[in-house]
Write a structure and sequence with these properties.
This protein is α+β, with helices and mostly antiparallel strands and about 375 residues long. Helices cover about 40% and strands about 15% of the residues. Helix 3 packs antiparallel against helix 4 and helix 10 packs across helix 11.
Length: about 375
């Protein structure tokens, strides 16, 4: 289960969510306590990124260790070292692989083995045939043994009602060798699930009232470029801040958003003319970089950029159409000169991308969707 252990890696500029769990790596006969990172795209980092199929091979070979020998040498890097004494482990390669597969499903918002089991139980409760019971039993047995106790989220009953239900009257409870399910036990399990269904039906919806948290459209990357002339069909280049699209702000006309931004950053108002007259947005940055910044520029720069971007897309409907065509996609803005404005392969803060998404939302609102 993921819990609060949330992490991510960046792949080709796209954020891939993940989680982690403890594991032992056996390398050179020694055991190293480490973190096993599991990602939504099915890759697992066990000292190297591997696919699920390769991860299974690592488990079978003992590289990712699920059995620990008495007297084996172990260490946690830069923390401690010790020798195993009568170690007890609960995992097998099959169980750990099943848990990792469940984790990948959960990271992708898909039903994991527990959810599939409970769905099979719902089918049985709606139509109580032996075929449906057998399907529910198979689904229960497909849940990793280490997580079956948590299937119902009821730590008083644990999974006992579930085991009784899938066994049926007179049947043998999975993982138990003695006794058969009595009619009284079975009736109690059925009543439990009937009450549970009513409780779930009355529970408030967990769906956000104002829509999903994530975008539906694939992420759009706006690559760094040094365009000096306007194009008939600029495509995503038209979304660059240094794209030559004049904007008028405060009674002054600037060749591009970049010119306006860098001119506004300069402390000496007279020196700003040289920035405005620079032959490109890149040159405007170079000129401005050699001049003193305005006091407090770092605190106001995002507000300034937001104002300039609004001006650009209000004054250039053709470029606004390009921005709107990105739908609800995450916009990743590449900026070789700034880790603040650029996303830069997951190493930057992507503030230009964020502000472009804000302006895009405002453009949609201006079309009559948010009054």
């Amino acid at each position: 289960m993921i819990g609060n252990r949330i992490t991510h890696r960046t792949a080709d500029g796209v954020r891939v969510p993940g989680t982690w769990r403890h594991a032992f790596i056996c390398n050179g006969g020694s055991y190293f306590l480490t973190d096993l990172f599991i990602y939504a795209d099915g890759l697992v980092d066990c000292w190297e990124l591997v696919t699920l199929g390769e991860f299974e091979q690592k488990l079978r070979s003992g590289w990712v260790a699920t059995s620990l020998p008495d007297g084996g040498r172990a260490s946690a890097h830069h923390l401690a070292s010790w020798t195993f004494g009568e170690p007890r482990t609960w995992l097998t390669p099959e169980l750990l692989l099943a848990e990792v597969r469940d984790t990948v499903d959960e990271l992708n918002g898909r039903p994991d083995s527990t959810a599939r089991c409970l769905a099979a139980v719902d089918v049985f409760m709606a139509d109580r045939t032996e075929a449906n019971r057998a399907a529910a039993r198979a689904a229960y047995l497909a849940v990793p043994e280490t997580v079956r106790l948590y299937a119902l989220g009821d730590m008083d009953r644990k999974d006992r009602p579930l085991k009784v239900l899938v066994a049926g009257p007179g049947g043998r409870i999975p993982d138990e060798t003695e006794g058969a399910v009595t009619q009284e036990e079975y009736d109690a399990a059925v009543a439990y699930f009937e009450d549970r269904a009513q409780w779930i039906a009355k529970a408030p919806s967990r769906v956000p009232a104002d829509g999903p948290a994530e975008s539906f459209s694939p992420a759009v990357k706006i690559y760094h470029s040094y365009q000096r002339r306007a194009l008939e069909d600029p495509g995503k280049q038209g979304l660059r801040n240094d794209y030559p699209a004049q904007i008028s702000v405060g009674g002054v006309t600037y060749p591009s958003v970049a010119h306006a931004y860098w001119a506004g950053s300069v402390a000496d108002t007279e020196a700003r003319t040289a920035v405005v007259e620079a032959e490109s947005g890149a040159k405007a940055r170079t000129v401005a970089a050699a001049l003193p910044r305005r006091d407090g520029w770092e605190q106001v720069r995002t507000a300034v950029m937001a104002r300039l971007l609004r001006a650009k897309y209000e004054q250039h409907p053709d470029l606004a159409a390009i921005l709107l065509a990105t739908g609800d996609a995450t916009l990743l803005y590449d900026d070789a000169d700034s880790g603040f404005w650029g996303e830069n392969g997951g190493r930057g803060r992507n503030w230009t991308g964020r502000l472009l998404e804000l302006v895009r939302s405002e453009l949609v609102a201006g079309q009559g969707f948010a009054d």
